[in-house]
């Protein structure tokens, strides 16, 4: 039977897009406490089912698919530009596909306005009307208002009219930045993108006898299985170490390791990989928001996915992408030497190489060094910077990595940063090595 929390989520999902939602109304309709209703609405917001907008309230929105992540809703535009809704509230859930800056005569706008677009313009009332008639929403800059007739038309057409105190140029830059941020987020691989659903995996119930562990091991050749209770909540994990010397008829819960490390679908793959290497874990259960088992990820799955990501072209470029793309490498005998120009994006407010960029240099050159030696992938555990001098913009720096110690599973690397043969930075990286599959 579904819990009250699940019942509320199912109810919210069944509502028509654009419906307004309140804690009090949900509590009344489903006969639950307001606290339970509030928690469920917050969960729905995390899942992208609803959106809460200041001075508007919480509304049911269309859940975004990851491939359309770069498209923003009008509700999100309000948050980006700190806007106020003047009319057309019922259309806030809609998605815009492009925006048009109205720095032209009204007749010329007709060529650019289309359904599901957004016109960014000042207090030109006729242009507001024209945009709405063409199926576009309106964002009025400079803090201006519009006519009551325009607001009524917006309400009739369910097309939002939003006012913001920012100027047109600033608004366009803010929206562009938001779309770019969405593109970068779209590229981040999450556990939910690669996990194996529980229906295709193997797990144990807490009251199962240990004999079932042996049965699963013969079937799968694996030796680690999550343990769940009657509600499918993850309560432990059983490995071959846990069952040594134990009788086959005792319940699994007597030998399992309690409170195992778990992840959510929303956990980033990079974080999960680092945690699995750090803790020496081969598999991790994946839970939903109610701590119930929904699947598993294995170390091998994670590494394969990360290696696949590294080979993909990227749409949204992060600072790390810019830094690593600038690095070139050459061989000096048996030594690899990396070099890069200090570009404006790599500097701090003083125009010198930032400490964060130095850290990115350290991790990237260390990783490339080990890849060149065919030693597997690197997971950095500790980076100690113990010397750095200012390096000005447009200067070229060289990075010299040198392995101090290397075992089967760990490595210690010394990194020196030079500018014109003068040492300007020193650091040591300690990390773990993970085999490529």
Automatic annotation (TrEMBL):
Q: What is this protein called in UniProt?
A: Predicted transcriptional regulator containing CBS domains
Alphabetized, the UniProt keywords read: CBS domain
Q: Name the InterPro entries for this protein.
A: CBS_dom, CBS_dom_sf, Diverse_CBS-Domain, DRTGG, HotDog_dom_sf, Ser_kin/Pase_Hpr-like_N_sf, Thioestr_dom, WH-like_DNA-bd_sf
Where would I find the CBS domain in this sequence? 195-255, 256-314
What the entry lists under CDD domains is as follows: CBS_pair_DRTGG_assoc, hot_dog
| Native source species | Halolactibacillus halophilus
Stored Pfam families:
4HBT, CBS, DRTGG
Q: Which domain of life is it from?
A: Bacteria
């Amino acid at each position: 039977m579904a819990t009250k929390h699940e019942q509320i989520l199912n109810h919210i999902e069944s509502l028509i897009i654009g419906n307004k939602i309140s804690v009090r109304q949900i509590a009344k309709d489903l006969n639950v406490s307001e606290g339970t209703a509030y928690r469920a609405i917050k969960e729905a917001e995390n899942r992208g089912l609803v959106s809460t907008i200041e001075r508007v309230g919480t509304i049911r929105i269309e859940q975004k698919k990851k491939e359309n992540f770069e498209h923003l809703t009008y509700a999100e535009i309000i948050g980006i530009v700190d806007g106020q809704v003047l009319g057309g509230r019922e259309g806030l859930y809609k998605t815009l596909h492009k925006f048009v800056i109205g720095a032209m005569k009204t007749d010329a706008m007709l060529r650019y306005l289309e359904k599901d677009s957004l016109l960014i313009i000042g207090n030109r009332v006729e242009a507001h009307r024209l945009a709405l008639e063409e199926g576009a929403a309106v964002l009025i800059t400079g803090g201006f208002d519009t006519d009551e007739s325009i607001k009524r038309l917006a309400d009739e057409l369910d097309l939002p009219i939003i006012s913001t105190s920012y100027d047109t140029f600033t608004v366009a830059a803010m929206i562009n930045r938001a779309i770019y941020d969405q593109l970068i987020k779209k590229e981040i691989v999450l556990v939910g993108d690669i996990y194996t659903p529980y229906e295709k995996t193997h797990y144990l119930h807490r009251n199962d006898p240990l004999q079932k562990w042996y049965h699963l091991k013969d079937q799968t050749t694996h030796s680690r299985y999550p343990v769940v209770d009657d509600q499918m909540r993850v309560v432990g994990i059983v490995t071959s170490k846990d069952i040594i010397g134990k009788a086959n008829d005792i319940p699994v819960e007597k030998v399992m390791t309690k409170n195992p490390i778990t992840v959510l679908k929303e956990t980033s793959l990079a974080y999960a990989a680092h945690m699995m290497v750090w803790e020496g874990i081969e598999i991790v259960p994946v839970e939903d928001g109610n701590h119930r088992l929904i699947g598993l990820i294995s170390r091998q799955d994670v590494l394969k996915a990360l290696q696949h990501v590294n080979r993909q072209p990227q749409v949204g470029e992060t600072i790390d992408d810019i830094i690593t793309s600038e690095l070139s490498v050459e061989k000096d005998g048996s030594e690899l030497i990396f070099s890069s120009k200090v570009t404006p994006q790599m500097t701090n407010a003083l125009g010198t190489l930032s400490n964060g960029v130095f850290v990115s240099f350290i991790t990237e050159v260390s990783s490339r060094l080990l890849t060149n030696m065919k030693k597997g992938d690197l997971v950095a555990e500790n980076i100690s910077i113990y010397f750095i001098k200012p390096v000005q913009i447009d200067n070229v720096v060289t990075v010299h990595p040198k392995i101090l110690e290397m075992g089967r599973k760990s490595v210690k690397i010394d990194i020196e940063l030079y500018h014109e043969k003068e040492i300007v930075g020193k650091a040591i990286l300690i990390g773990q090595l993970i085999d490529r599959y």
